[in-house]
Design brief:
Blueprint: H1 7-11, H2 24-28, E1 34-36, H3 39-44, H4 50-56, E2 65-67, E3 99-100, E4 110-112, E5 130-131, E6 145-150, E7 156-159, H5 160-164, E8 169-176, H6 193-197, E9 200-209, H7 210-217, E10 225-230, E11 237-241, H8 242-248, E12 250-255, E13 258-259, E14 269-271, E15 284-290, H9 297-300, E16 305-306, E17 312-313, E18 322-327, E19 338-347, E20 353-359, E21 367-368, E22 370-371, E23 381-389, E24 394-402, H10 411-418, E25 431-434, E26 440-443
Parallel strand pairs: 6-15
Antiparallel strand pairs: 1-2, 3-4, 4-5, 6-7, 8-9, 9-12, 10-11, 10-15, 12-13, 12-14, 16-17, 18-19, 19-23, 20-21, 20-24, 22-23, 24-25, 25-26
Bound molecules: ligand MTE and molybdenum atom (MO).
Molybdenum atom binds near residues 131, 177, 179, 277 and 278.
GO molecular function: heme binding; molybdenum ion binding; molybdopterin cofactor binding; sulfite oxidase activity
GO biological process, one term: sulfur compound metabolic process
Protein name: Sulfane dehydrogenase subunit SoxC
């Protein structure tokens, strides 16, 4: 059962609906069983009856292979191995993609993870949100090095092969852009959870602890901060306290069982569990140890939090306790009153999620949700809550409580402390209104 308003749209091509069944296939002279769906194919199909419907549908992304769907899959042989040239892809019926922000330049833009569509706790690498200040560089790992220097005994350049030969650590953690939910300060803006909260992804990262590299170069007594620098056109730089680097930072080269995706920093990125996304420098090429922060553009002009009194907070590095309901959420449609399982994510940059509460009445009363996975530090948790919807208007909310005792604030609590001058680190409770017709929308209470 699809509860999306665009039921048609998410269904994907099948049966009589399948655009590849009639006109398109002979027209394109592709083989009987598969159709490479591309912009060209869509254009070629334009005069055909199926085309207008196709245009409205969420179809497989360009380049995806669409196979005919047999009436009875037990009556004909399935396709053989290696038709994918040895690198598999998801089912043609799974069509959710990252959605890009409406920005003048794609190279300095971002994309949102479809949070309502991912399954389990990990974000598939192909759906990890993206935020680039100078585009995605193409870097040959054979020519890439990481230079560690400054207040060290011996400055050293590490090749990727050298880094991979060191003992590694594999762990899960989320990355959240500090700009996640930034449009929600003054009025409910994002239409759906992908846009409101989709600058959040969770990954199993593999890499070498910074502490291991530190032993190779030898930190001097007064080492206190480290500049991390990227090899992209933005040459993005941030200063990181040495304590964080020595405790749990990873120089990561692995993402969910394979090399980092180029979008996530191939061949090397800094992972700082729980810290704001912008500190986790991608395409990492340099670490300079110092006795003070470098006060780069990214930590003086950008990524500071302007307070009520006009002063700005610097180095607000940890992401706060936060949660969001992903089902039901904005732009969805509940077809009729009845039983539903509310679902969502909770996370905190200050440790494990301790508990999640759900409210069905806009925050008047709360009840504990079920945690669907064992909480890990600085990682997301899935929660769920069984709900009988009586068909009356309801306002659904969730709040995260982390192991450090932080409780996700209401909007008014957050604004009373922070004012409304801030852009980043908005972690207020999200409200979704369910109307009596079953439609769900973003509201402020
Ligand atoms: N070198 C470099 N590192 C970078 C960025 C960048 O533009 N260049 N963007 C930062 C920001 S603002 C965020 S939120 C995260 C996003 O990581 P992702 O694109 O893997 O989701 O990377 C950070 N690291
Ligand atoms: Mo970011």
């Amino acid at each position: 059962m699809s509860l999306n308003r665009n039921t048609e749209a998410t269904a994907g091509p099948s049966g009589d609906d399948c655009p590849c069944k009639d006109g398109m296939k002979p027209h394109l002279e592709l083989d009987r069983r598969k159709l490479i769906f591309s912009a060209a194919a869509a254009t070629a199909a334009a005069p055909l009856a199926a085309a207008p419907a196709l245009a409205e549908k969420k179809t497989a992304p360009p380049g995806a292979v669409l196979y005919d769907v047999p009436d009875d899959p037990t009556k004909e042989m399935g396709r053989g191995v290696h038709e994918d040239n040895g690198y598999g892809t998801r089912s043609q019926f799974e069509t959710e993609v990252r959605v890009k922000a409406d920005r003048p330049l794609d190279a300095t833009s971002w994309t949102y993870t479809p949070l309502a569509a991912t399954i389990g706790n990990l974000t598939p690498s192909g759906l990890h949100f993206e935020r680039h200040h100078g585009g995605i560089p193409t870097i040959d790992p054979a020519r890439h090095e990481l230079y560690v220097h400054g207040l060290v005994d011996i400055a050293k350049k590490f090749t990727i092969a050298e880094i991979k030969s060191l003992p590694s650590v594999t762990r899960r953690c989320f990355i959240e852009c500090s700009g996640n939910t930034l449009d929600e300060w003054s009025k409910p803006t994002g239409k759906n959870v992908q846009v409101t909260h989709g600058l959040l992804s969770t990954t199993e990262w593999t890499g070498v602890p910074f502490a291991t590299l530190a032993r190779h170069v030898g930190l001097q007594e007064n080492a206190a901060w480290v500049l991390a620098e990227g090899a992209d056109a933005a040459v993005m730089t941030r200063s990181i306290p040495i304590g964080k680097l020595m405790s749990d930072a990873l120089i990561a080269y692995g993402q969910n069982g394979e090399a980092l995706r180029p979008e996530q920093g191939y061949p090397l990125r800094l992972i700082l569990p729980g810290f704001e996304g912008n500190t986790q420098i991608k395409w990492l090429r340099r670490l300079q140890v110092s006795d003070r922060p470098f006060m780069t553009h990214e930590e003086t002009a950008a990524y500071t939090d302007l307070l009520k009194d006009g002063r700005a907070k610097l180095f607000t590095l940890e992401m706060d306790a936060k949660s969001v309901i992903t089902f039901p959420s904005g732009e969805m449609m509940l077809p009729k009153p009845g039983h539903y399982l509310i679902k969502g994510f909770a996370w905190s940059g200050r440790g494990r999620v301790y508990a999640v509460d759900v409210s069905l009445d806009g925050g008047k009363t709360w009840a504990p949700a079920r945690l669907d996975n064992v909480p890990e530090p600085m990682s997301t948790v899935r929660f769920s809550y069984p709900w009988h919807w009586d068909g009356k208007p309801a306002i659904l909310q969730s709040r995260c409580i982390d192991e450090a005792g932080n409780v996700q604030p209401t909007r008014s609590e957050l604004i009373s402390v922070r004012g409304v001058n801030s852009v980043y680190h908005y972690n207020a409770i999200q409200s979704w209104a369910v109307a009596s017709d079953g439609s769900v929308s973003n509201v402020h209470v």
